[in-house]
Amino acid sequence: MPSIRDIISAVEAFAPRSLQEEYDNSGIQTAPDVDRACTGVMLSVDVTPEVVDEALASGCNLLLAHHPLLFRGVKSLTGATPVESALIKAVKGDLTIYCCHTSLDNAPAGVSARMASMLGLKDVRTLDEVGPDTGSGAIGVLEAPLSPRAFVDLVKETFGSPVARCSDPAAIASISRVALCGGSGAFLIPKAVGAGADAFLTSDMKYHDFTDWGGRIFLVDIGHHESENCTKDIFHHIITEKFPNFAVRYSLKDTNPINYL
Asked: CB neighbours of 28 closer than 8 A, spacing ≥ 6?
């Protein structure tokens, strides 16, 4: 049985912490004893009190998540907030929490590359390279050109998003070259335009992103959770490739905090 350290080492071999952005806090969040045997891994996008409870009830002593639990400063530990409550539960339950955020975003086969694969893009490369095959976003070509509306239908079906915010579909004749970025990727819109993309897919775009760029590229905004839900599949692949038949569980309590009515 691998140790918790063994699992973390496998993750960091795939997505080194050196790839994370300066503002980020990827890595170990709580670590009672990383050299003990790993009894099971729970996979999640977010760390919430409910996910921590689920991990402990399932017999997992490692929770592997995308979004860092400790991202903004925690100035007290009273259990008054979800972050504080999750921390208290994890420490009391001897649960190790490891979060792989922008290090996974920037990894060669990270979040954006996974999204590109899910869409069936060809000739995929990193959109904004900071090193060999590392960096933010991805760009590739669809198997066949699609109308903007057909592209949106493909995106919604692929990522399980019930809605998508879009710029004017009449402004673009057809979609062939697609740029994308998991999570909040509006900062890459100029790169996507410069790379000749017909469409840019991401989440968390603002009103003025659409007014400033919508006439030059077809913008498609799906939910943040929808764009990064694939991180659990990436984690699963990393672990099971290194440790076949090991106990890896997908959290059932890790749900989108945004509801569509």
From this structure: 8, 34, 96, 97, 98
